[in-house]
Amino acid sequence: MPRSDGELMVAFQEGDQEAFATLYDRHGRALINFFYKMCYDRALAEDLMQDTFLKLLRSRGRYRPEASFKTFLYTVAKNLWIDRHRSQKAAPKTVSADLRVQEDGATIGDLLDAGAESPVERLADREAADLVRKALLDLPEAQRIVFVMAEAQGLRYREISEILEIPVGTVKSRMNAAVTHLRGLLGRVLR
Amino acid sequence: MRQELIDLLLGELPPAEAEALKARVSAEPGLRRELAELESLFGLMRRGEAVEPLPATREALVAAAARAKPPLLPRLRAIPGLVAYRFRTSVRFRVAVVSLAAHVILIAILANMLLRPGDPFDRDIVVTWKEAPEERVEPAQDFEARLAQRRLPRSTRLRQYGVDGQERAIERGLETLLAKQRPSRFSRRATAPRRRTRAVTRSGWRAATSSPRRGAGRPTEPCSRRSSRTSPSRTRS
Questions:
Q1: Residue B233: is its pLDDT beyond 50?
Q2: In terms of Cα–Cα distance, which of A135, A134, A109, A107 is closest to A122?
């Protein structure tokens, strides 16, 4: 039976390094995509994800098993996002699809194309991805972080309210506003 | 309504409410269209770009974790949390914690009552200092002073009454008489009646309880041994 995140974190506190590697395997991909959808800068997302795990490594003594590990992880991630991204004050709005992101030389464009079957579908996917990117970056940051956490990361309203330290009602209203905003921007594609 | 549809898609609605909403959506074409639009929006957002972390990042992080030694203090601090986590779902554990807390409180109360001097049930509980019974302590020094005052004119009086020469016998009789009237050095006589106020203030009974009055209510006894020791006749002889 696989161990829960909390048990893995407790094991890591006791010196089990394999537990840390397992936690990374479980949450690393989701975390980098969270940061990526927040800024659409792959290098920054990779840095922030790495920093989040390093901070987790350093502050592992502060973790309490009764708390949710996911909430703990995303609280660290949110704080890093606020510290790093806001201090830079210059988030790149676009990223080149030719940027090499894999060691074998694959680009973001290649990754996007991987699931498509025909040239038309590829084009549609690329267009859709561009539209999604523009729409997400057009969202106010407060709405974007709620939307990405709820929709892309699958976090519950209660968890988001704990991470962002806002009431659940505010999470709901921000989510509603984000959906309204996105529907206005992506209406052409949706119909 | 849109908020409820979003909650439905995100799985935030309780099962009963979700079923009711689904039934309503299937009955109303407008809601069905709205739900379909939201579903396609969420599907589109999921089709957006996704990135994979670099393998080098994993290696670097695992190496950093291997270098970091677990500090002793966090491990010690984690023990209570670990115990609570392991047994958090156990009803027995919760009952045991509540029972332990109740025992500790009971033992603390009993220890406090038994270790304090005096009878714990014979204490006046005073709500405010104004209600404290006023006590007038008759200091033994006053008595000695009065005795000295009486002593001075005694021989003069004896001479006046024509009983000169019988001082010894009279003095002895006087001493006996005075000894009967003399109060004990440490005795206190409460002039006001004892007030027993059985009330507990907000600050707690401990803070409001007055200390037991030693000797209060006891009859004043003559201290004959002491008086004989300090009698002027013996001192003189």
A1: no
A2: A109
Q: Which of B38, B45, B52 lies nearest to residue A152, judging by beta carbons?
A: B45
Per-residue pLDDT, averaged over B25-43, amounts to 86
Predicted-complex ipTM score: 0.71
pLDDT digits (tens, 9 = 90+) for B40-77: 888 888 776 778 888 888 888 888 888 876 655 555 66
Report the 10 Å Cβ neighbour count for B99: 10
CA separation for the pair B189, B215 (Å, rounded): 8
Chain B CB contacts of A10 under 8 Å are 78, 82, 85
B154: left (phi over 0), alpha (psi -120 to 50) or beta: alpha
Q: Which residues pair with A107 in a beta bridge?
A: A100
Residue A122's pLDDT band (cuts 50, 70, 90) = low
* Opening angle at CA A20, ends A157 and A62, nearest 5: 65
Please name the amino acid found at residue B5.
Answer: L
Phi, psi of A100 (to 5 degrees): -80, 125
**Using a CB-CB distance cutoff of 8 angstroms, which residues of chain B are in contact with residue A40?**
49
Identity of the residue in A15, A61, A128 whose CB atom sits nearest the CB atom of B44: A128
Instruction: Flag if B70 and A14 touch (Cβ within 8 Å).
Output: yes
CB contact under 8 A, B61 and A180: no
Contact B84 A66 (CB under 8 A): yes
pLDDT digits (tens, 9 = 90+) for B179-191: 877 665 555 554 5
**Model-level pTM?**
0.54
Q: What gap in Å lies between CA B52 and CA B58, rounded to an integer? A: 11
